Amino acid sequence: MLFGATGSIGSSVLEELREHRQHFDLVGIAARSSLDKLAEISREFSVKTVAVNSDVRINLAKFCPKCRIFRGEQAMAEAVSTSDFDILLMAASGLAGIRATMNAILLKKKIIIASHEIIVTAGKFLCPLAQKNQVRLLPMDSEHNAIFQCLKGEDRKSVKQIWLTASGGPLVDCDADALDQVTPAQALRHPTWSMGRKITIDSATLANKGLEVIEARWLFDLKPSQIKITVHRQSLVHSLVEFIDGSIIAQISEKSMRFPLKNCLFYPHRQPSNLKTVSFDEVINLSFQPPDEKKFRCLTLAKASLEAGGIMPTVFNAANDLAVGLFLENKIKFTQIPTIIERTMHEIENFEPESVKEIFDLDFEARRVAKVFI
Ligand SMILES: NC(=O)c1ccc[n+]([C@@H]2O[C@H](COP(=O)([O-])OP(=O)(O)OC[C@H]3O[C@@H](n4cnc5c(N)ncnc54)[C@H](OP(=O)(O)O)[C@@H]3O)[C@@H](O)[C@H]2O)c1
Known about the structure:
The chain is α/β, with parallel strands linked by helices.
C-alpha cells in the first residue's frame, strides 16, 4: 500500500514500482484530495483499495470498477485494517497517517516511513509499539536511511553520536540581512533535491533538519546530545555514524530518493540497480561545515523542542507547518517563520502527552495559537 501516492515521494515510489512489477503489486493507495491523480494511478496499477482523506464525493466510474473506496479522516486507518497487503509505505504528509501506521504495526506489517511528521509528533507512541510488536520501521528519508544502513550489525552501545548531513538549502549563501526579502519562488529553488513545496521551504529554513533531528531521536533511540548536524553541500554523503572507538561510517550515493527507497523495499536484501552511482574515477570534492544557527533559527527551535520533550515537538511542527503555508501564500515574510514558531512554543505550556488523541488536539491548538502571532 502506498499512502501519499500523489505526492513527490509517491511519484518516486511509483517509478520504482514500474521498474519492479515482477516483485511488487500495488494493492492500495491514499491521498488527501487529488482524485484525478488517484484515479490515474488506480487504473495503471489496478489497485484494489483507495483511501481519500476528505469527504469529497467520488465518481466511482473514474476508479477501477472493483476498487473499494474509503473516505474521510479514518479512511487510511480503515483501509489498513481491512486490506490484504504486506508493505505499507507511508508518505502522506502531516499527522494524517498516524493511526494507519499504528494499525499496520499491530498487524505486524513491513512499514516504510517517509513522513517526518508522524515520528516527530507520535514517535513516543509508535516506536515502542513497533518494538513491542517486533516490527521494524524502515526509514526512507535519505538521512535516516543512511544512519539505518551504517548501524547494520553494530552494537548500539558503541555509537557515540550520529551526524545528519544537510545540503544547506537554497538560501545557504544568502546574507542574514537579505532573508527578510526572500520570496517563495527563491526559497523553492533547491540546489540539490527535487521535493514537495512544504519540505523545500523547510529545507530553506533548516526546519527540515530540525524535524529530522527529532525523528532520529525516536527512530534510533538516541539522546538529543548524540544527534549532530553538518552542512554538506554536495548531498552525496547522506549521513554518518561515529562510534566510541573514533571510527566514522558514512553512506554515500547519488542524490535520488530511489536509493533509500530501494534499500527499504528490498530490505533485508539488496537489489541490483541501474541508477547512476557515485564514481570515484572522477575528482570529487566533499565539504562539511557547521550550520549557521543564528541565521537559521528554526533549527535551534526544533532542537529546543526536542530538549523540552513532551508536546513541544508537536507544537514546533504545527506552528512551522502553519507558518510555511502562510509564507507560500505570500502572507508573511520568510523571517516570520521562526518568530511565529518561537512565540507559539513560549505560549503553550508543556506536558507529557498520554495518547495519540492528545497529539491531534495539540496540533489543532498550536495552529490556533500560532495564528495569533501573524
Ligand atoms: N520529497 C522528499 O524528498 C521527502 C524526503 C524525505 C521525507 N519526506 C516526507 O515525506 C512526506 C511527503 O513528502 P512529499 O514531498 O511527497 O509531499 P507532497 O509532494 O506535498 O505530497 C504529500 C502527499 O501526502 C498526501 N496528503 C497530504 N495530506 C494528507 C492527508 N491529510 N491525508 C492523506 N494524504 C495526505 C497528498 O495528497 P494530495 O495530493 O491529495 O494533497 C500527497 O499525496 C512528508 O512528510 C515529507 O516531510 C519527503
